[in-house]
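Hypothesis: this fold can be encoded by more than one sequence.
Test: take the C-alpha cells below, design a sequence, compare later.
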C-alpha cells in the first residue's frame, strides 16, 4: 500500500513525557481474541442497522455532521470546474480538538481560523460537531458585497471534544505552471499543502494537552461505481471481559452515512495484533468483512492522563473472502478511561490495485 499515513508530532514547547505511558488498560495487555479467519462474523444480513448493539445505536443516532448549504456552490468558479472532462475537485476534511474526547479536559481551546486556496473555490458541505452560539462560520463576502470563494473563516472552541468542517475544493485549470496551494490555520497552528499533496492526504498533528489536528483529502471521484471511498469513525475500547472491541459509522467521502462497522481487536493464536469485523449498510445488509493489523504508539502530551494511540490498516473482503478494498486509520485512548476513539478511511474498487489512490 502506498504510504497511507503521515504523522507529524509537534511538541509545542512541551517536553515529551515518557513516564506513566503504560497501564493495565493498554492494548498490549489485551486478552487473546477469537480472531482466526473472520472471527465469529458471517456473510449474512443483520436484523438491524446497528448490529442490535445499544451503544452503536446511540452513536449512530448522534448528529455528528450537519449538512451545510453553501451559496458559494453557485459561484461561476464552481460551475466552470464541474464542466471540465476531469475536474480538479477534492474532498478536504478538517478535524481539531481533543480527538480521544477526554472528559477530564474542561479548559477551552480557541481554534478560530481560516482555510484559503490560492486559486479556486472552497465549498462547505458539512459542519462537524459545531455547537450553536459557540462555533460558527464567518461571512464570506467582501466590503463590496461579493463572495470570496477562495477563503473560509470560522470561530470554534473545544474542551473535551472536537469540531471540524468538511469541504470540497474546486480548482480551475490554468495555462501556466502555477502551483496551487491550500493553507489551513487554526488557533496558533498553520500548515500549507500543494494540490499534488491533496491526492491522498492524511496528516495528524499532535499539539499540547491532548489536542490535535487531523487533515484528510482525496480527489473527488465522479464515477462512484468504479472507485468508492470514504471515512469510518467510532469507539475503540474493551468490553467487560477485557476483549478489545470497536464499532462506529461508515460514511462516504462527502460525509453521507452509508452504514456501520463492528469488530474485535486483540492478539491471535500466533501472537499477532489482529482486528476483524463486519461492515453493513444502513438497512443491515452485509457489505463486507474487514481484517488487518494494529500497532500501538504511546503518546504522552500535556498535564492530563497520558494517552496511548496507534495505527490500524487492513483489507475489505466480500462474501467469498476475496479482497475488494482497503481501510486504515488511527485510534486514541486515555488509560484512565476504558473508552477510546478511532478515525479512518476506506476504499473499494480499483484502489486495491493502486494502493488506495484513484489513478
Amino acid at each position: 500500500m502506498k504510504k497511507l499515513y503521515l504523522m507529524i508530532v509537534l511538541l509545542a514547547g512541551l517536553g515529551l513525557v515518557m513516564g506513566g505511558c503504560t497501564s493495565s488498560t493498554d492494548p498490549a495487555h489485551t486478552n487473546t481474541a477469537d480472531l482466526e479467519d473472520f472471527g465469529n462474523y458471517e456473510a449474512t444480513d443483520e436484523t438491524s442497522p446497528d448490529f442490535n448493539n445499544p451503544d452503536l445505536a446511540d452513536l449512530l443516532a448522534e448528529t455528528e455532521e450537519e449538512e451545510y448549504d453553501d451559496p458559494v456552490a453557485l459561484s461561476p468558479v464552481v460551475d466552470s470546474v464541474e464542466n471540465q472532462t476531469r475536474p480538479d475537485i477534492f474532498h478536504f476534511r478538517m478535524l481539531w480538538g481533543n480527538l480521544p474526547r477526554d472528559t477530564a479536559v474542561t479548559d477551552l481551546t480557541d481554534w478560530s481560523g481560516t482555510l484559503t486556496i490560492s486559486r479556486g473555490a472552497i465549498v462547505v458541505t458539512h459542519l462537524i460537531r459545531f455547537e450553536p452560539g459557540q462555533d460558527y462560520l464567518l461571512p464570506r463576502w467582501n466590503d463590496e458585497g461579493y463572495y470570496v470563494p477562495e477563503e473560509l473563516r470560522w470561530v470554534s472552541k473545544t474542551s473535551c471534544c472536537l469540531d471540524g468542517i468538511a469541504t470540497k475544493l474546486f480548482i480551475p485549470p490554468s495555462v501556466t505552471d502555477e502551483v496551487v496551494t491550500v493553507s489551513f490555520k487554526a488557533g496558533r497552528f498553520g500548515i500549507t499543502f500543494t494540490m499534488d499533496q491533496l491526492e491522498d492526504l492524511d496528516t495528524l498533528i499532535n499539539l499540547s494537552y491532548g489536542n490535535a489536528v487531523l487533515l484528510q483529502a482525496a480527489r473527488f471521484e465522479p464515477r462512484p461505481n468504479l472507485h468508492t471511498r470514504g471515512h469510518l469513525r467510532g469507539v475503540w475500547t474493551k468490553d467487560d471481559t477485557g476483549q478489545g472491541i470497536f464499532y462506529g459509522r461508515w460514511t462516504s467521502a462527502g460525509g453521507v452515512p452509508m452504514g456501520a462497522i463492528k469488530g474485535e481487536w486483540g492478539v491471535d493464536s500466533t501472537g499477532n495484533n489482529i482486528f476483524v469485523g463486519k461492515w453493513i449498510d444502513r438497512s443491515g445488509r452485509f457489505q463486507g468483512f474487514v481484517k488487518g493489523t494494529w500497532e500501538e504508539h504511546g503518546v504522552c502530551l500535556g498535564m492530563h492522563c497520558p494517552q496511548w494511540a496507534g495505527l490500524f490498516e487492513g483489507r475489505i473482503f466480500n462474501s467469498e473472502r476475496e479482497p475488494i478494498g482497503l481501510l486504515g486509520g488511527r485510534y486514541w485512548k486515555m488509560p484512565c478511561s476504558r473508552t477510546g476513539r478511532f478515525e479512518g478511511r476506506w476504499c473499494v474498487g480499483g484502489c486495491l490495485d493502486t494502493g488506495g489512490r484513484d489513478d
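The mean pLDDT is 82. The longest helix spans residues 54-61.
Hypothesis status: open.
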